[in-house]
User: Fold this.
Amino acid sequence: MRFRHPDGSTVHLAYCTNVHPAETLDGVLAQLRDHCEPVRRRLGRDRLGIGLWLARDAAHALVTDPSALRGLRTALEHRGLEVVTLNGFPYEGFGAEEVKYRVYQPDWADPERLAHTTDLARVLAQLLPDDVTEGSISTLPLAWRTAYDQERATAAHTALTTLAERLDALHELTGRSLRIGLEPEPGCTVETTRDALAPLTAIGHDRIGICVDTCHLATSFEDPHTALDGLAQARVPIVKSQLSAALHAEHPHLPEVRAALAAFDEPRFLHQTRTLTAAGLRGTDDLGEALAGDALPDASPWRAHFHVPLHAAPAAPLTSTLPVLRAALTRLVGGPHPLTHHLEVETYTWQALPPELRPRARAQLVDGIAAELTLARDLLTDLGLKELP
Assistant:
């Protein structure tokens, strides 16, 4: 979906396909047929943006087989889909029964991460629509915080500098300008936007910026305006923003609130949980740890890294951090010029929701994703952007 900003530039809105498990190229093509095109039709649009997630095997197949890459581009065009952004965070296994800490491997100190992201960039340069010259890729924020020492930090810095040089060369070769965004996430070396300033300033290349995920922003209790103003002042480019909402518990000391939270404690994904105290931010790596005993103070609200559907906040006594998303979006695209032109709805946890909230059929998932995109569209038009055909 495309929108015209009042300044005349185009803002792209997509939804991320990491909600649909697929590790191979055949699986990706099936996603387009079974999910992405039906979402487009449900919205009544001739064109729909998707943020492709390409696992290692799928990306490798595309970059080593030009005919396969041409076939994917043809399939996108045939189904009324377009790609301007990729989700390069998960490497493989995102559809496994247990993902948890595995999603952070390999990190930017490992050569595999550079090789994979280079493959993604080469693929995206060929998938961009003919009238689009700029693409974006989100990636993990360097590494999970443990076992990340100065030696690994130096290796990660070198890898990202090498990537920037490769993106410069790709621009010269193809005319397509691609940028990478580190995505701050609770528990990682770069947990907040403030944490991103030092490493990105040290790299000092405008092709390496930040991806602002509004669920992560909210989970870490970052004020959107303060965070985004800080990035602007440091001249850190906002490569893309993922529109998502976290789980919010206003009164975590109450038994009924803890019981409601326990329904979201599931074995597949990591749900980092945070609370803001007078002494600063406190947290646990997972929701179950927070609910066990006194691991986390409960005198102030809790927020958990659980991407809940944008249009359907959890039932009381829980809610979502949709207000944080609204505030961030106002700052991102509501001003005289957009701070980013790439927006991506990223609710990958549909099948991890409590059983009674999960879509029971493919059509229900299509309806849910379409409803999220409709909400995002309405937020954008309320800010003065005009939806394009």
